[in-house]
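Exercise 7.
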Amino acid sequence: MSDGVKTYAFSELLNHPRKPGTDSIIEEGILKKNSLMVIGGPPKSYKSFISNTIAIDLVVGRHLFTATRSEHGRHSHAFDVRSPQKVLIFEQEIGEDDMEDRIKPVFEILSPEQQDRVRNGLYTHSLDHRLQLDKVEGVSLIAKEIEAVKPSVVIFDPLIEFHTSDENNTQAMATVLRNLDLLREEYKFAVIINHHEGKETTVKRYGGDRLRGNSVIYGKGDTFLTLRVANRNASMIACEFTVRRGRPIKPFLLKLSPITMRADFLDWGKEKKRDIETNKEIPIQ
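Solution. The predicted structure, written as tokens, is:
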């Protein structure tokens, strides 16, 4: 053993003392304390609505997207949030008025107790383009806001608006993510970032590997939630989690409500389409 690093026999590994700061925020390995989650998808795939829904569920402390499982006739929650969290959203696209318009409908259907949690646990900071992860001054301003709020989860929406670097440049993007790492290490919060996918290529790519820009983003992330619009008229979104610290999770469908402006669980598995000749349902790949 050297400097506190130990070789474990499996008999010792079982029930060994766990390091502080590695507990789950969202179960099933989706989001742990101080981890990085990336929500990716093409433009107009409802990434902001998905991250707003996640923020509300984190603050309220309920299972994500109200998702459930049914096994052997028994129903249970999926994607449980372990306890209510404090969330700070940095967003650079719509501003305070539209943020209020997006969050207020779901706030109004919550119970009085849940509304209190949202009043005291959800913070937003909009359209402040001084906040840049590749600039010393920008990182300092981000740190100032985080220090004031003391959130357990911080959302950046979208990542491209928090730097001016070339996303295809490995060194530049490593600097962006390293500064994000330093903030996480200093203030002990988990990060969720919204990020666009790159253009389609002749090489088939899956999950987080479809993200736009340098592969350093894919290499850094702990969890990836990839989105694709399954039916725009019905506001149905096909979703897939890729988790590095948990068991594989089946793809699932969400439906965005035009009334509450939140995305809720619809069904497990990929969406279906009908073969014109046989009239049979087939999965969309």
